[in-house]
Automatic annotation (TrEMBL):
PANTHER family: HETEROGENEOUS NUCLEAR RIBONUCLEOPROTEIN 87F-RELATED. This is RNA recognition motif. (A.k.a. RRM, RBD, or RNP domain). It comes from Flavobacterium terrae. PROSITE patterns: RRM. Keywords: RNA-binding. Pfam families: RRM_1. Residues 73-117 are annotated as: Disordered. Residues 96-117 have a biased composition (Gly residues). InterPro entries: Nucleotide-bd_a/b_plait_sf (IPR012677), RBD_domain_sf (IPR035979), RRM2_NsCP33-like (IPR048289), RRM_dom (IPR000504), SLIRP/GR-RBP-like (IPR052462). Residues 1-79 form the RRM domain.
Length: 117
């Protein structure tokens, strides 16, 4: 079972998270999500446990627990449906501009309502 763990202290590392869940059963993987530019923790991660009963027990016991002064959120992770993922270029209009620009200038396509350069 894949488990979401949120509101993590930024000081916690994957070994700490593995140890916390390992008390309840076999942990197959741990991943704390980090910012791709700074490498700093984003304050949430995922724990994979092989046995669903052990995973449910860990969720029950650890959800709402305090870790380094922060109340963590622990629940079953549900994957997002493919249609709900947003891509980088979502705001591009088909005319090559950036949608509904209302500021000054005449940049690209879109519905410009401001002045021109």
């Amino acid at each position: 079972m894949n488990i979401f763990v949120g509101s993590l202290p930024f000081s916690i590392d994957e070994a700490d998270l593995r140890d916390s869940f390992g008390v309840y059963g076999t942990v197959t993987s741990v991943k704390i999500i980090t910012d791709k530019f700074t490498g700093r923790s984003k304050g949430f991660g995922f724990v994979e446990m092989s046995n669903d009963e052990e995973a449910l027990k860990a969720i029950q016991e650890l959800n709402g627990a305090t870790v380094d002064g922060r109340t963590i959120v622990v629940n079953k992770s549900e994957p997002k449906p493919e249609g709900e993922r947003r891509s980088f270029n979502n705001n591009r209009s088909t005319s090559g501009g950036y949608g509904n620009n209302r500021g000054g200038g005449n940049y690209g396509g879109g519905n410009n309502r401001g002045g021109r350069y």
